[in-house]
Fold this sequence. Notes:
mainly beta; Thrombin, subunit H; 5-stranded antiparallel sheet; globular
Amino acid sequence: MIPSDSIPDIISNNQINVIRLVNPGYIGGGGSTGSGCIINKQYGLLVTNVHIANDIRQLNCHYLIKTSDNKIISRYRNGRVLYCEPYRDLALVSLEFTGSDDKDNELTDQFVLADQKPADFGEQLICIGYPKPYRLQSMTLGYVCCGRRTFNETMFSYSVSSFIHHSSGTISGYSGGPLIDEMGRLAGIHHIL
Length: 193
């Protein structure tokens, strides 16, 4: 159980690790938005859902950085999709830092990954994401409802396995956002079923 007085600290320590992603070439050309999680600040690597990346090679990424005087500043970069694993609904994306005309990699933090053990039944998780159509983060809090399970995703013609079923609010735009445990670690990636 996450103590209620520690929830604001967990959120403020991790909000800069959550990225808003825009896929302008989503099915039907209408565009799509979701969230992503920074897992390696040195190389600008993040994870999101395959259904956000959806077989394109570039995403528009909006992220936050913390300055030396603790101010939060918004930044925009392109992201290149490096790898997609449809059976886990995970995509690996690299932020593109162009070099000379642009600032170097300015990411200031990344998620600490939780142990590989499955989340426990009844464990509380925090979910942070960018709900559509807003450009501000929000959060929900929920519990692990049952063990890992497999889901047949008919929209994209593949089965996705090893889901953590949780009771956090399912808000459009949260897909790809983090499920954070009581230690502030990345325990999973949000996907709306």
